[in-house]
Amino acid sequence: MCTTEEKIINASIVLFSQKGYTAVTTKEIAKEAGVSQMTLFRHFESKHNLFERSLDKFVFSPQFKALFESLEWDLERDLNKICSSYQDVLYKNRKIILMHLKNEELNPHFEAVLYKFPNEFKKLLNRYFEEMRNRGAIIENPETLAVNFLTTSFGLFFTSLVMNKLTFDTDIQTCISNYIKIFTKGISLL
User: Fold this and answer.
1) Are residues 78 and 20 in the same domain?
2) Does the keyword GTP-binding apply (predicted)?
3) pLDDT for 50-88, tens place per residue?
């Protein structure tokens, strides 16, 4: 069962992602959450604070760090696992991503909160690729690989998000497997 704060945050995420920050009123959010406007302000004080808390919900998960600790050091299997998990995290947070896309006027603090996850993900990928280079599996620059892997993986997610399905007759897991196969073949020394 959701707390009152969770109901308000969930309602705000839905409305912010549909209309953007400026177009949504606290009255609409309160109605969507099934609470009074006074209750909304008691919990969040302002629409700005509510928006910030909604963005805070999109944070780097400790389970994702645990994923990197459980890797097998097999380039193709590990990257399949990483990309699939990344797709899951993005899909679960798609409303936050849509909310960001609807809000061009975000201040730098909101941007910092939103970019926390991809920045943490990039650091973990960089460390992974550094270790794979140390093990002699790759010779490429780890940071370049991390950025390329991250942007291509996000591109796959974004394509499916915007199109509401992939633009071709292939499921996402097949796309991930094919992408990883090509990526690993291109960077692998073995």
Assistant:
1) no
2) no
3) 988 887 765 556 677 789 999 999 999 999 999 999 888
Least Cα distance to 22 among 47, 46, 45 occurs for 47
CA angle 58, 173, 73 (to 5 degrees): 80
**Whose structure tokens read 């603090």?**
109
CA distances from 9 to 75, 76, 86, 97, 134 (A): 39, 38, 23, 15, 44
CATH of the domain at 18: 1.10.10.60
Give the separation between CA 183 and CA 128, rounded to whole angstroms. Answer: 15
**103: Cα separation from own chain's centroid:** 17
Taking CA atoms, 45 is separated from 9, 15, 57, 58, in Å, by 13, 18, 18, 21
Torsion of CA 91, 113, 64, 184, to 10 degrees: 70
Domain ranges, residue 160: 62-187
Do 16 and 46 lie in one domain? The reply is yes
Q: Which segments in the chain show pLDDT lower than 70?
A: 57-62, 102-114, 164-170, 190
Split into its structural domains, the chain has a count of: 2
Place of tokens 């797709």: 87
- 18, 36, 56 — which closes off a domain? 56
Instruction: Please name the residue that has the structure tokens 């796959």.
Output: 156
Q: Is residue 52 located within the same domain as residue 67?
A: no
